[in-house]
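Notebook p. 47: complex prediction with flavin-adenine dinucleotide.
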Amino acid sequence: MSRNGVNETSNCHAPIKICIVGAGMGGLACALALAKADHTDITVYEVASNLGFVGAGIQLAPNMARILDRLGCWKQIADEAVECAETSIREGSTDKELGHVKLGYIHETYGYPHMVGHRASLAGSLYDGCKREPAITFKFSSTISNVTFAPKPSFTVTPREGQPYQVHCDILLGADGVKSNTRVAMLKKLGETADVQDTGQAAYRIMLTRDQMKHDPELLALLDADRVTRWIGEKRHIIAYPIDNKNIYNISTAQPDANFAAAPSATYTTKGSKKEMMAVYGDYCPMIHRMLDLVPEGEVSLVGDACHPTLPHLAQGAAQAIEDAAVLGVTLAPGRIADRKPETINKALKIYEKIRKERAEALVELAAENGRNMHLGEGKAKEERDKVFAALKTGKGPVPDKWADADVQKRIYGFDCVKEAEKACQEEGLPARA
Ligand SMILES: Cc1cc2nc3c(=O)[nH]c(=O)nc-3n(C[C@H](O)[C@H](O)[C@H](O)COP(=O)(O)OP(=O)(O)OC[C@H]3O[C@@H](n4cnc5c(N)ncnc54)[C@H](O)[C@@H]3O)c2cc1C
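Predicted complex, structure tokens below:
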């Protein structure tokens, strides 16, 4: 069997051959989890020539941190991430605080703090972890197409330079993002379509440096605080926090997609106009105008609901991709699928589906619901929501911003997907043999 390509096949004496489409957070975490589970033949195919992540921050929730720690990547990320001590939910038009939640209890309760960091740091440390594993091979500048499934998965690899070639493998994992070709092929085989439901929302991703903010004491105070701030308004919000040891203020917005809906792009990411962005937040308070005005013309980038088919209002998209990977590391452990029969591999993947589907779908719905609730316009529903925020100030009741609500956090952060996967494998008769 050739490792570099032409007509690669697996045979019963070779190790189980695993191919992964996509080197996003999901693909990188899958490769690492499977290598740590002692698989020895893992290839990751990525259309881009390198990792090339959009420069932006990301929330690193405890359910993600727990897995990254088991994979040996957490320390590197945590060293430059910022711990969120508190969150403040404010009215965008006035900057009036509606709700305030201290987050210190998260570390004690879930064993890891809630941190915020740079996407490049998360991806970089997963990638570094992968590079330390001889089992993992990366093929960048390689596009996957023509995925077929029987008797074993097979697909075409088209390198940017060179001739297309065919690969056969034992297990194919499609981690190719929201516009996944693998999903389209899989559903077609099942006689279903794979239309993506457009959320109608878009986001501006902005990173301001300390240098840009240093002349404005009010803005500098935001950068120096250990706080995630959300400014809400009708159909829109801005969420922001410091990253990179407080050298960068990361700002992410969410608003109806009026300016970009027609922008053709393979990734949903494109450039935006500063003037349009300022107009979208025109009725927000002067401090926010000063903050957005620091964005240089022409450097605004847009990510719609790009990387994952969930709205980002619970900050769980990548965390869920990493949970997927951790569960696959358990269900596909070499000892469980040692006979490499398609029915055994299928059983392992069914257990994966059983553990992941309901949880991921529930969090996608919860994120959408949180968006609806945070984006209320004037009226009865907003009055009711603001009463709940007011009660919170006297220490009573739930937090309307579900991201900061202790009961919702318990459901999200308290779930140890690896333990659940091990339990399910035992229950379903797929024990790990040495
Ligand atoms: C505004 C915004 C804010 C967010 N904030 C957070 C947050 O704070 N916390 C959090 O946990 N999540 C957050 N998310 C979600 C998170 O970014 C995504 O869920 C996560 O990055 C998805 O990773 P993925 O690996 O599944 O997909 P992707 O990152 O999309 O990776 C897919 C990869 O596959 C490659 N690929 C695609 N097709 C092919 C092909 N045919 N051949 C070869 N390669 C291919 C692509 O080039 C890409 O590299 C946010 C999302 C948005 C939009």
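Notes: Residues 100 and 279 are 28 Å apart (CA to CA). The longest strand covers residues 201-209.
Next step: compare against the earlier run before touching the bench.
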